[in-house]
């Protein structure tokens, strides 16, 4: 009996990080709102799986004021823990808040129930990574300007 309890506990502890490896759809929407409130006009990425902290924080990256690229580390309560800014001359690139929310909704419509990351690549590809309702990993790729997936894997 002790062996069964120990085995069950070990499996539960091993699986625990997987449960918090992504955020809810509402967390993703909230990240867009936090970034917008901060002043981000073009989102580059939103990561709801923070590799550095274990408290459901998020990382938001994008453009502020057309010249500043910002990386925000945001606590689960919405407060900004860390901000890094770099002045860049190549101009803002990325997704508007409306487009970002659109890709989140399109991902939900194709089976995504938890989001780990949404990111735009240099070639115009938008990747949304997360999990479906069964917990299976899911990646949905879009092209800039279209809410129709080019790949669901």
Give an overview of the whole structure.
- The protein is of the alpha+beta class and 153 residues long.
- The protein has one domain.
- The protein is 29% helix and 38% strand.
- It contains three helices and nine strands, in the order H-E-H-E-E-E-E-H-E-E-E-E.
- It has helices at residues 2-19, 25-38, 97-109, and strands at 23-24, 40-47, 58-64, 68-74, 80-87, 112-120, 125-132, 137-143, 151-152.
- Strands 1, 2, 3, 4, 5, 6, 7, 8 and 9 form a nine-stranded antiparallel beta sheet that branches.
- Helix 2 (25-38) runs antiparallel to helix 3.
- The protein is globular.
- It starts with a helix and ends with a strand.
What would the keywords be for this entry?
153 residues, alpha+beta, 9-stranded antiparallel sheet, 3 helices, disordered N terminus
């Amino acid at each position: 009996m002790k062996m069964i309890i120990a085995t069950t506990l070990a499996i539960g502890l091993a699986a625990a990080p997987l449960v918090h490896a992504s955020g809810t759809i509402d967390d993703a929407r909230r990240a867009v709102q936090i970034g917008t409130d901060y002043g981000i006009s073009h989102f580059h990425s939103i990561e709801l799986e923070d590799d550095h902290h274990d408290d459901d924080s998020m990382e938001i990256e994008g453009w502020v004021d057309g010249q500043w690229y910002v990386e925000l580390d945001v606590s689960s309560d919405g407060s900004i823990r860390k901000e890094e800014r770099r002045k860049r001359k190549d101009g803002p690139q990325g997704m508007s808040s409306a487009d970002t929310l659109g890709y989140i909704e399109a991902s939900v419509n194709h089976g995504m129930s938890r989001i780990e990351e949404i990111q735009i690549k240099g070639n115009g590809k938008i990747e949304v990574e997360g999990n479906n309702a069964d917990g299976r990993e899911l990646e949905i790729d879009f092209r800039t300007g279209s809410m129709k997936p080019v790949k669901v894997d």
